[in-house]
Specification:
Oligomer: single chain
Structural class: alpha/beta
Mean pLDDT: 88
Shape: globular
Helix content: 40-55%
Radius of gyration: 16 Å
CATH architecture: 3-Layer(aba) Sandwich
Low-confidence stretches: 1-7
Order of helices and strands: EHEEEHEEHEHEHHEH
Largest sheet: 5 strands, parallel
CATH class: Alpha Beta
Number of strands: 9
Distance between the termini: 21 Å
Strand content: 15-25%
Strand order of the largest sheet: 2-7-1-8-9
CATH superfamily: P-loop containing nucleotide triphosphate hydrolases
C-alpha cells in the first residue's frame, strides 16, 4: 500500500472528536456504493449491537500485539488512554483494489502518523462549539462521567490539530455536513 504509484480507488481519512457525528456521516456515505469503510481493529470490548468484522475487528491485547509484530497495521494508537485502535493494511488494500473511495475512520494520532506516507484526502469533522460536543457525548448515555471527561480532554487536543487536515467540515447541520463531505470526495475522485 505504501508507495503505490498508481491507484484504482481513493483513500479518505475522516477524523474528529468522539460525539461529533462521524459514524452517522459515514453510515450515510456508505449508502452510495462508491464508498466503503475500512474496518479498524480495536482492543476495546464491543458495545451493544456491534458485530466483529463489521463495526470493528475486536482483538485481544495479545492478538493486537501479534498484528503489530507482523507489521499488519498502517497505523495504531492508544486512544482515550485505554484501548488500542489500528488500521489494517490488508483492509485498505482490498478496498482500493476494488476501486472504492475507502474511508478510514481514524483518530488524530493515526492521521498524524499517516499524513506523510499515504496518498489520501483528509477531512476533520468539527463541532460548531465545544459545548455542543459535550452535550452530544453526555446524551449518548453509553459512557460514565470519567470516560466522558477523558474523551473531552482528548477532544480539546484533537480540535487544536484540525488545521493539519485538507478540509474541515463543521457538523452544525448533519445533512449539510454529509452533503459537503460527499461533494468534496466525489470532486477529488473525479
Amino acid at each position: 500500500m505504501r508507495g503505490l504509484i498508481t491507484r484504482k480507488g481513493m483513500l479518505t481519512i475522516l477524523s474528529g472528536p468522539s460525539g461529533v457525528g462521524k459514524s452517522t456521516i459515514i453510515a450515510k456515505l456508505l449508502t452510495d456504493d462508491r464508498f466503503a469503510l475500512s474496518v479498524s481493529a480495536t482492543t476495546r470490548q464491543p458495545r451493544d449491537g456491534e458485530i466483529d468484522g463489521v463495526h470493528y475487528h475486536f482483538l485481544s491485547e495479545q492478538e493486537f500485539d501479534a498484528r503489530i509484530e507482523a507489521h499488519d497495521f498502517l497505523e495504531y494508537a492508544t486512544v482515550h488512554g485505554s484501548s488500542r485502535y489500528g488500521t489494517l493494511e490488508a483492509e485498505v488494500e482490498k478496498l482500493v483494489e476494488n476501486g472504492k473511495i475507502a474511508i478510514l475512520d481514524i483518530d488524530v494520532q493515526g492521521f498524524l502518523d499517516l499524513q506523510t506516507t499515504l496518498d489520501s484526502t483528509s477531512i476533520f469533522v468539527a463541532p460548531p462549539r465545544f459545548e455542543v460536543l459535550e452535550k452530544r457525548l453526555r446524551s449518548r448515555g453509553s459512557e460514565n462521567d470519567e470516560t466522558i471527561e477523558r474523551r473531552l480532554e482528548t477532544a480539546r487536543w484533537e480540535l487544536s490539530q484540525q488545521d493539519r487536515y485538507d478540509h474541515v467540515v463543521v457538523n452544525d447541520d448533519l445533512s449539510v455536513a454529509i452533503q459537503t463531505i460527499n461533494e468534496l470526495l466525489l470532486a477529488e475522485d473525479a
